[in-house]
Amino acid sequence: MVYLLLVAVGMISTGFNWVSGGREGAERLFAFATNPFMGLLMGTMATALVQSSSTVTSVIVGLVAGGLPVSTAIPMVMGANIGTTITNTIVSLGHIRDKQEFKRAFSAATIHDFFNLLAVLLFLPLEMATGFLEKISDELSLLFVGSGSMDTGGLNFIKPATKFAVKGVKGLLESIPEPFGGILMILLGIGAIFVSILYMGKLLRKVMVGRAKGILHAAIGRGPIAGIASGAVVTVFVQSSSTTTSLAVPLVGSGLFGLREIYPFTLGANIGTTITALLAATAATGDAHLALEIAMVHLMYNTLGVLFIYGIPFLRQLPLMGAEMLAGQAAERKSVAFAYVVTVFFLLPGMCMWITSI
């Protein structure tokens, strides 16, 4: 499954480069997304639809390697963080019959939402003004791949392993008239990523969820650092931040843990989920430096978000206050919960994309 994921990313970057005809063509194809808000909404809606930020960020890595500008991709990565929170919000609806239980579970689910929304509100304007994430990630990626392509870098042990498979797929599709061959290659790559992450997640959950629960129980109550670290470790184990945060929802709903105890654990999930994009970057065909750069953007954004927001007491309290207030309203009127999911993850992004396109 890991090999399939690596091949799939290579297929996307090769197919996208094939369709766009290089970096200039890629910039023209995604000219509509140069508005950062459009990129943010695209990332949010795509992740909400497939319910996997790992899938979306892996696709983004492949697109960047194939020519999508990093500056255009950064808001998409931020949007993926928002979209992935829909899963644990849906899980919390399973507690809807008991008013107090639902209030606790819904607050545990939406604290992740509010944290990621706050991170976007703080970091997206700063990135638009300074480009700090792109600059930092560019320097970090150069440490690994140098100033050239993958062939001159230190990560070339992955690309040769997938090169034959990617070329084989392209060879089968070359007889299809342009640009349909490249488009089909991209679609096959996206499908392969979805399948690989889905089955890899299932396998890892069967093996690791029991152990993950043990880590969670051992870490909760031992301070925020232990909570964040355990959330990151569990997410690396199960390859899904949605699974990690969804594990916490029933525990809070049942009253076993409090919202403030589980809060750091959910933040660790944001850091742990970046491992998939980093893995995908090692297999991207095309510009390996840029593929690794956008993966580093994901890592730096999620890590700095945790350090900055959780590290400042005033900011730390905002997601807690938002989650508790919304959960209180949802417990009194169940329609609020359903309206929240539909509006935040689908209706609002869709309307904003439509308005922006006009």
From TrEMBL:
GO terms for cellular component: plasma membrane. The chain crosses the membrane at residues 180-199, 262-282, 294-315, 335-356. One of its GO terms (molecular function) is sodium:phosphate symporter activity. GO terms for biological process: sodium-dependent phosphate transport. It is found in: Cell membrane. InterPro entries: Na/Pi_transpt. Keywords: Cell membrane, Membrane, Transmembrane, Transmembrane helix. It comes from the Bacteria. This is Na/Pi cotransporter family protein. The lineage of its organism: Bacteria, Pseudomonadati, Acidobacteriota, Holophagae, Acanthopleuribacterales.
